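HOLO CASE FILE
Compound: pyridoxal-5'-phosphate
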Amino acid sequence: MKNDFYIYQAQTTMFASGFEVERAEGSYIYGTDGKAYLDFVAGVSANTLGHSHPKVVNAIKEQADKYLHVMVYGEYAQEKPVALCKLLAEATPDPLEITYLVNSGAEAIDGSLKLAKRYTGREEIVSFKDSYHGNTHGALSVSGNETHKREFRPLLPMVTFIEFNNENEFDKITEKTACVIMETIQGAAGFLVPNDDYLKKLKKRCEEVGALLILDEIQPGFGRTGKLFSFEHYGIVPDILVMGKGMGGGVPVGAFMSSKEIMNSLSHSPKLGHITTFGGNPLIAASSYATLKEVLDSGLMDVVKEKEDLFRELLVHPKIKNINGKGLMLAVNLGTPEYTIEVAKKCMERGLIVFWQLYKNEYMRISPPLTISHEEIQKGCQIILDILNEN
Ligand code: PLP
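Model generated. Tokens follow.
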């Protein structure tokens, strides 16, 4: 399988691990080598409830027994997508009340940018240095890392990048700005959290000039920081909320939410302002609904802080410079990219999956399923500490 993977499946780097997966359950992935691997990455924040959660798998099976795809997004009223959008409206503060379901985070970002331009009638976008919003042309255009963009120009024009947590740059948000797009917690940059009242001030600036605030919650989304979405920690509500990854419980999905007034502008002048075949697919919606219901009903979010504290308590070592992040999205600074990658490889050999952050490779990613147990946290952290003690 590994050989065929390298030969036939397009590669994203020259050094993919090619780890051969047999099955996955709870906090573990089982390799074809017969070994169990404790998963501290969760498909890069995608497996909110761990692997193959029975409620998620059953929801998918029940829907598969009824029907699969019947029509493109937005034409037919189907039980699961409607229930998902309704529950999202109930679970989020006003004015977030209506949801557009799409296929991926990047598509949701593109949709949100189109929505902001269409609603405001403006052309300029403000984004953040070191941000990551996905890899379609639109999402890449608002991502703030030159290395990943340089070879793919021309990208969207009229995008200005400001520094995260720096209020002095607010004068770049003007009456020409359609929207400011921001990851509430910057992921690729090493899980940077906003300073206490930064988001309040940013929202105020947007209101002053009539720009919409789009928050990309594709990673924190569905409970990862102890709230359903991380903006709830900061006392503001975005005009457009973007989600993906963890909202699917392990299936491909994305969505953007806003008020009815804003969202309605995608349905006229022109009609069909965003079109997608598989957005709102019932199989995906069934999985996402089951995930959302479980996150809301299970009390899992209430113990996220406790689990974060346990990680922070255990991961104390002279080789750990600092730990960024919030809840179960933590980035552990091991000093250099080379050392972090070496540690990640050794962890894998000993049955623990960790990874590094996309732009800041010196940061080791810890984003386990929310369902991870205290014992599993202890076991994984001990593996990391043993490796740090060795060299
Ligand atoms: N935005 C953020 C913050 C992300 O972390 C990601 C994916 O890693 C995306 C957008 C893009 O999502 P997708 O890979 O589903 O297109």
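CASE NOTES: The chain has two domains: 2-52+300-390, 56-297. The longest strand covers residues 177-183.
CLOSED: yes
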